[in-house]
Amino acid sequence: MQNKENVRLLLPAALGPEFLREEWCGEIPQEESRVLIFWDTFEWGLWFGGYLLYSCGGSYHLCLRDGGWMGEELCREKGGGARRFWGEFRTPAMRTQLQGVLGVRGLAPVVEGTFHRLQDELRNELGKIVCRLEWDSISAGKRGGEELLHTCRLHPLLGYEAEAARVMARLTLAGARTTGDGPLELLLRNSGCTPRRYTLRPPFGLKEGTPAREAVGRIVRTILGIAASNLPGLLSDLDTEFLHDYRICFRKIRSVLALVKGVYPPEEIGRMRTILGDLARQTNRLRDLDVYLLAREEYLALLPPGLRPALEGMFRDFAVEREGEVRAVISRLRTPSCTALLRELEEYFGEEMLHGFAPAADLPVGGVAFRRIHGRYKKIRKLAGGIGADTPDEEVHQLRIQCKKLRYLLEFFSELIPPEEGGAMQKLLRRLQGRLGDFNDASVQQLSLLTYWQEKGAGSDVALGVGGLVSILYQRQQSARALIRQALDEFCGDATAALFKQCFKTAVSAPPTAPPRSSTP
Amino acid sequence: MKIISSYSIKGGVGKTALSVNLAYALREAGERTLLLDLDPQGAASFYFRLESAKKFKMRDSQSMAEGLRKNIRESDFPGLDLIPSNLEYRRLDILLDGMAKRKKQLRNVLEEFKSDYDVILMDCPPNITLLSENVFRASDMILVPVIPTVLSQRTLEQLTGFFRDEELSAKTLRPFFSMVQKRSKMHREIMADLPASHPGFLKTAIPFSADVEKMGLRRMPLLAYAPTCEAARAYRALCDEILAPSGSRP
Q1: Does A504 lie in the same domain as A471?
Q2: What does the pLDDT look like over A158-195, one tens digit per residue?
């Protein structure tokens, strides 16, 4: 079978199959109406990955995305019921395609439209089909309201390309055109929904001279916006990443407030940090459970097959506990007091809010941030000197926390740092954080597993499984410890220290200018 | 890619009905199929409402493939393409005669279509020429319709004799009973005896059917307009038999 290029045309509303019957034979086809529901993740993973997934009449169809059009269909799967995660699809092709794009993210409907379709066949004088056409009228929603788009797709037949060209010429003369927004773009625009790139590290539009309070306010407002965008998904428990990102947002805001001191009055900022801590704390257990359940397959694979059933019971317990914890978190987040705390945060960091005096409020953020970054780096270097094979876990944990703070600072103020140097620093820091994270995860997980075993008073089978896993995690922790030293040497070595000094030297050596008096409420 | 031909020295035995309906059954089974109508009468092309192929003038196998490719027509049934017949094909013998390895050239030409099709099915004219010899050497399987009559039986013997004389592989010959009338005692007797002397005989038999004769009026395969009639079911069974892993070898 050879390739024949299909042609897509946008048509004036009045143009239909009858128009072509002056020149070609063939019955006027019956119209079929189909409601298509399009699915994607919160991050628009399918859209930006170049795919479209829609369900229609009890089947799921995965296509390549061609602008706002459905392109080539890659696979389809029959079967009713909503599918949320890639693992809920049954056909291997669908699972393989979706796994890479969706990861742990859940699918939700993003828009639906009604497609009225006429499958048309044009025949020559012998009654032979010489061109196929699909006429589509697309309207928003299930009931087929106002028509958003009228299109026609030409499918030339091999050996009859000239006929298709003639059909196209006729339609073009009548006002058809080949370019314009596709049905998806129009349906999304009609519903007020725009695919947007999601990131936890957005630009804040900072310059070195931006006053520190304005800069911090902008950072906080942006991150609060990201937290708010995650809240609906968290409240519907669509997937575990909403909670993960929601917590990261609050952690980041707490960090920026602690790291860039002196830009808000300390007593006011103390209250804000307490609110942020309270909001994050109430989701701690749920996140712990998510982490365990997401790692279920990995944990089971660590054990010999004979011990795996012993651990299944623990995961069942966690799954049951999670159901209760999700309900509790959702109801807590919906309480008036929680909503009021969130509102208080938003108002406090609102652009219109006037705050009391703080010494660094009007200093250029560049100098303030660079001093903090360099100071944090020096602190890490100092801590790193004491890390060895026998360092207590707690000290390694403290080093991890300091690294995280530095990472946040580098991220918050990345727009002020030369990209090449900033990238190099972040790369080394990420590697170190990865090693520290592996170490810490293994340590925390051992403790949690042992706590579960003690609290549960679990029988011998579970004890066997937990014991087996704890042993493996302990070995992992030891392996991770050995790798930390190497990453520390890289990150704290003279070359990296020189890089930090070169980037942040000016700010460090320049004395802080006397701040002008800040506005008072 | 499999190359299958529908061939008999005798006319009127159901070769074209086989080609048209088997091609349809193959695309139903998901096989990308090209039907090559080599019979100058062009009956297979007629059944698919196709006009004659354009002339092609070429001397070497590569340009012969190009000439054939230019004549490919997509049928009304997705997955099934045709190269319609043309009176020019009577010159194929002369063309092939002028080439090196003249008895094996057709296989080389058809290999050019390997990436586009799973099956190439050839509807052949009822004669033995240089083109026929090329068809025999190009085919992985030669389907031979045999009406259970003495004359058809004799024709099959002539064909097997030709294969023996020309040292062609008899394993590719796959006769099957065509236009069978169960009420005929002679049909029943020949069907009971003949397969024993031909190891490649296919089990499926195509019954005589008035539905098949209506193909000329409907101008489409029987399987498209009477998909559940007895003959249509038999063509599908024949398709299954030759596609089965054991179907390609006796």
Answers
A1: yes
A2: 999 999 999 999 999 999 998 888 899 999 999 998 99
**A502 part of a folded domain:** yes
Q: Is residue A21 part of a domain?
A: yes
CATH dotted code for B2-241: 3.40.50.300
Domain CATH number, residue A471: 1.40.20.10
Percentage, residues of chain A above pLDDT 70: 95
Residue B231 vs residues A342, A425, B143, B204, B236: alpha-carbon distances, Å = 76, 76, 17, 11, 9
Q: Residue A1 and residue B79: Cβ atoms within 8 Å?
A: yes
- In terms of domains, do A173 and A261 share one? no
Residue in the block written with tokens 């059909």: A167
Beta bridge partners of A116: A33, A137
CA gap A197, A54 in Å, rounded: 20
Tokens of A16: 């239909």
Q: Which of B49, B73, B76 is nearest residue A159 as measured by Cβ atoms?
A: B73
The residues, any chain, with a CB within 8 Å of residue B120's CB and separated by 6 or more, are B1, B2, B3, B4, B33, B34, B36, B110, B113
**What's residue A141's pLDDT?**
84
Tell me: do A128 and A238 sit in the same domain. Answer: no
- Find the domain containing A32 and state its range: 7-190
Compute the distance between CA of residue B126 and CA of residue B10 in angstroms, rounded to an integer: 6
- What pLDDT, on the 0 to 100 scale, is given for residue A268? 87
Q: Average pLDDT across each block of 10 residues of chain B; the chain has 250 residues. List them in order.
A: 94 94 97 94 94 62 77 95 82 67 79 94 90 90 96 93 91 95 93 92 95 93 96 97 71
Given a cut of 80, is residue A344 above it in pLDDT?
yes
CATH of residue A177's domain is: 2.40.320.10
Q: Tell me whether B54 touches chain A (CB under 8 Å).
A: no
User: What mean pLDDT is predicted for residues A393-408?
Assistant: 92
Contact B71 A159 (CB under 8 A): yes
Judgement on whether residues A181 and A229 belong to the same structural domain of the protein: no
| A1 with B73: Cβ contact below 8 A | no
The predicted-structure confidence for A118-129, as pLDDT tens digits, reads as follows 999 999 999 999
**Which chain A residue lies closest to B84 (C-alpha atoms)?**
A159
CB-based contact A1 B32, cutoff 8 Å? yes
Report CA-CA distances (Å) from A421 to A133, A407, A497, A501, B167: 56, 14, 12, 11, 78
Q: Is the domain of A55 the same as that of A100?
A: yes
pLDDT number for residue A518 = 41
Q: What is the pTM of this model?
A: 0.75
The ranges assigned to domains in chain B are: 2-241
**Cβ–Cβ of B74/A158 closer than 8 Å?**
yes
Residues A179 and A226 in one domain: no
Indicate the residue of A1, A121, A127 with minimum beta-carbon distance to B81.
A1
The pLDDT score that the predictor gives to residue A4 is 64
Set of chain A residues whose Cβ sits within 8 Å of the Cβ of B71? 159
In a domain? residue A517: no
* pLDDT of A3 higher than 50: no
Do A155 and A30 share a domain, yes or no? yes
- Count: domains in chain A: 2
DSSP, res A84: -
Q: Does B71 touch chain A (CB under 8 A)?
A: yes
Same domain, A274 and A165: no
CA distance B235 to chain A (A): 23
Nearest to A128 among B71, B76, B117 (CB): B76
What residues in B contact A157, CB-CB < 8 Å?
73-74
Residue A427 one-letter amino acid: K
Let me know the angle formed at the C-alpha of A379 by A373 and A380, rounded to the nearest 5 degrees: 90
Domain assignment present for residue A241? The answer is yes
pLDDT at A162: 92
